[in-house]
Amino acid sequence: MLCLACKHLNPRTASSCEICRTPLPSREPPPPIFTNLNKIRTAIAQVTRGEITFTQFEELVAGLEKLFREKLAEVSGISIPDDMIAEMKDEMDVGTEGIKIYLQSLVPLRRYLEEHNVDYLSQGLALAEVANNKMNQALLLNWRAFRSLQESAEEYISTNTV
Ligand SMILES: [Zn+2]
Question: Which of 50, 62, 136, 155 is most buried (CB neighbours < 10 A)?
Answer without folding.
Answer: 136
